[in-house]
Request: fold
Amino acid sequence: MGLRHAFRAALAALAIWAMGPTAAHAAPEPGGVQVIDSAEFCRRTGDVTPGDDCEWKTVPLAHEWRGERTEPTNDGWFRLRFHLDAVPARPLGVYIVGFNRSGRLLVDGQPLVELGAMHEPLPLNWNRAQYATIPPALLHAGDNTLEVQQRVYGWEAGWLSPVRIGPEDVLQPVYERRHFWQNDVVRVFGAATFAIGLFMLGVWLGRRDQSMYFWFGLATLVWSAISLDYFALAPPLPALLWERVIILLQALRGLTMYVFILRYAGRRSPVIESLIWLYFAVGAAGVFLRWLPGVFIPAWFLVSLLVSPYFYWILVREAFRQDVAEGVMFAIAGGAQIGLSAYDLWMFSQSGWTDRIYLAHYSEALYLIVVGWGLMRRFIDSLNAYEKLAGVLEQRVDEKAQELGRNVEALVEARRNEALARERTRIMSEMHDGIGSQLTMALSLVRETPGEGGRVAEVLRESIEDLQLIIDSLEPVENDLLTVLGTLRYRLLERLGKSGIALQWNVVDLPPLPMLTPQSVLSILRILQEAFANCIKHSGARTIVVSTELAGKAGVDETARIRIVDDGKGFDAPPSPIDAPATPRSATVAAAVARRGRGLDNMRRRAQALGARLDIMSTPGRTEVILAIPTLRPAPASGSGLRPDPGIAAGGPPNGGVRSET
Amino acid sequence: MNAVLPTRILVVDDDEAFRDSVRAAIVPHAGLVLEAQAGSLAEARDVIARQAFDVALVDLGLPDGNGIDLIRELARTSPETDVMVVTVFGDEAHVLASIEAGATGYLLKRSLDDTLAATVRELRAGGSPISPVIARQLLQRFKRPGGPADAPAGGVATPPAVPVDDGGLSERERQVLQYIAKGFTVGEIADMLHLSAHTVATHVKHIYRKLAVHTRTEAVFEAGRMGLL
Reply:
């Protein structure tokens, strides 16, 4: 008994149970086509047409028959009669929807065509319609006979569907259409699924931990092997072995798909998978060892079919969890698979042959392609995610590298500052304990000495003051110009107090100035000291106002300005009558004026060396000295308030409070 | 305030001329008395062991050692004595080191005649002198970790040499230091903060004391970490 036959019987039983019995149909055919649905049949192996001595009997078509199981092959003969009113002008077509397995056609005793090899190995024709043309020369008006010789293996059944005879131009397109859908399309799908299967296995080879790719690849390859049975003329294995392998592959395809679904949904279960393989092993043993009764295989298949909805449910639910679009597509593909399988079951359950073709393997291919697409998309998504992650990582590494670079720079800077500070401390110590102490001592000695020590004391005092200025320029001011100004004020406080000049301190915060190195601080201190000295010594001012401001645009021409305004008599004031050139004092005055001129020149020169600008506007009653130092700050990011904080950092009151002071 | 008991002063300096000028500066002031003089570290220790002083004027460069050590000993043994370090330039390195050791004031050698008496009186009354640079350095020392004050521009802040937390520096004390660092005088700050000048000066002395305490704590911590304690 053919295994496939048993399988089909089982499916048919299931379909009948599901839908109830359906009547066979016999539709009228258009275009002068005769449908021959009965024939005389007798069984005799051999290429000679049996005569009347054979046991001819009339059978309805389709007819299914069996020979001797012990023989390698058996032949069956069908004799079909058809009536022609006249010999047609054009050849007639013969179209046979179902025919198993190989055979020949004869018209009125004349050989017409072989429908495949008549010797081992016989062709694989179970899913293939047959078509032949009868030349008019072989026909005659009245009754004609079409003889069909059929050859099958001893272990299988032969069958012949109703035969259609009619005009070539009507029947041939019908046959070709059927051949396209029944065989060619399956071939294309088989090739496509084969490619997908190989791809998936390749993915799995690269990612052994992702076993779902392996199982899906395997299921897909199993399917493409099965599809061979639908379109190949010659199976890749001996016929009987192929029959058995196909049975097992049909089961295996379902089982590998179940394993895939479990892993796809992250529900890998050793228990279920063990049961699956145990089930398969039992079936394989049943198929190859044939130690079980014939009903076993159908029962075995039914088990697999009955559990399949469970796995489809898991698959579709998981797909929906991942992505709605994917869920919809999986549900449609799975639904089509179930629906078309039901259709095929119904078709199997029909007793007669029709032009209809089996459809479940189309949905199977669709199903595999959709799921494969989903997997591929997932694979590509993870590739994209990886690339994105790699990009993010790269960016982070860059950031870290930059941060590291900054830290190293900061470290180098800190080291440098430390070395500078050490050296500074050393020089300070030298000056403090050495020359500074000596000068101080000399000054006090000179002061104690009566007589003409006044001039020497003056020089000593100036030396010490200059040394003080140098020391102050070395002090850490943290780039704050106000601290530089404040230091000068602190040093001058006593002299200002003695001279009775009031000082107004109208400063506002300034941005940090990186250019405040000891060298530039010394220059600034000297310029400002000269300005103060002029006020104190020569101007006769009562009030000095010191203010700071920020002018210009950051990134362009921004400057930090120090403004010193006094209410003294000014540089250009004409000498008073008692200072007239004629008097003896005039030389002293001229010398003082000349000295002051030199002082102003010095101030300008120093400012120029700093890259700063010095403006002096002097009128009697108001002298204004402005030192404008470029901040060299980059342009601010828009919106950030970079104007100097009018108050003191960390919440001090605004400097307006100072301005109002006198 | 010191009408009843005169302020007893000790001067420690190897320069005799300087000691003489200190005497000369003190003599006109009734409330001040030069109680003792020392020309070396050894002499000074001798004198301190025998006698108590209200104010000690200490030079750092002594022939037999560093005045810092003497300041530290004085701060430990007689905390009621105000120590003033005598410097030529009042530079931050010398002054801060002295304050860390326990000094609460400093004096410029060359302006002794004019400022000695006033500075000593102010110190006894609880106020300490301070320069803008020293104020700025103190802000650095007491820098709030990640705090906005005095953060250098340009992002990555290099930690100060001695990174400490606020160490109990009050907001008012911080404000005073910020104003001084910008060149404002004690009088101006007093007006802006609606305080008396004396109170502002007292804040400075408190800050000095905190720095000394902080430095000691840190030394103990360091010693403990090195296994010395």
Observations:
- The first strand of chain B starts at residue 7 and ends at 12.
